[in-house]
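[Q] Does anyone have a clean structure-token version of this?
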Amino acid sequence: SAAPRSAAPGSVRVAAAEAWAVLKARDVQHFERVVDFLEAVHKLLPCLVSPMKHMKILFGFKTLVSAVLASPA
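[A] Here you go.
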């Protein structure tokens, strides 16, 4: 789940850990949560990653999603 604007650092860490766990497990059911987290972080800290790099990260992530969905179970 994405961290709200007034989130404490601990809850941001928890959200980041959840996003990492979803990616690591390639848990397709929760990929949207990762996108929400990335968008929230980019809105909160736009200077952390350039807009172009942010777009590339999202594109790469969506490519990963497509590859996981296309691969046989």
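[Q] Thanks! Anything notable?
[A] Residues 14 and 29 are 19 Å apart (CA to CA).
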